[in-house]
Amino acid sequence: MSRSVLVTGGNRGIGLAIARELAAAGDAVAVTYRSGEPPAGLFAVKCDVTSTEDVDAAFAKVEAEQGPVQVVVANAGVTKDTLLAIMSEDAFTSVLDTNLTGAFRVAKRSVKGMMRARTGRIILVSSVVGLSGSAGQANYAASKAGMVGFARSLARELASRNITVNVVAPGFVDTDMTAVLSDDQHKAIEGVIPLGRKARPEEIAKTVRFLAGDDAAYITGAVIPVDGGLGMGH
Q1: What residues make up the domain containing 136?
Q2: Beta strand pairing status for 43-46 and 223-226?
Q3: What pLDDT score does 37 carry?
Q4: Helix-helix angle 52-66:101-117, to 10 degrees
């Protein structure tokens, strides 16, 4: 049965791959985007997840188009990398506001409808960096690590309503964000990945599809690494 799905930051990269994967599974999929162009073939709503008003308006449009959201994937995120000694307070707080508080806004807006329906799936897209840390990414790592505690608290709150909450933690993924790195940087990173290569966005998307599906009905509060072994042991 087709479900109503919302993927934030779904107009490119990992988010777009997730949206297309869930659409291919038969779900009605909507995406939010903050900038750029909306993707072809998907219902798209412009939304800045740092704005509660934007999130509320986006959900209202999605609900009018395809019904109450039954699966939400909080994927929207930004980076502002720099060393802590020269990191501005805005560079720290703005990354947390988008990545972590944005996930809070999206989850909060979705959860009342899920509780009434007594079913739902909430999936947060974190990062291996949130588990292992990364020099020059204290803000990003903090935001992604925060998702784990947030998700596990929600998993405990919502389990009695048959709502699962899980985290996917991608590693080094072949997207526009990593395309700007030099060949030497790519080789250095791939050299410490046990599987020796970047992930394809579709590999992250398939894990999200699993967590959103019936086969994962007994999984909640989990952190699933999709990182080629990069974060092994964390």
Answers
A1: 4-173+201-225
A2: unpaired
A3: 87
A4: 40
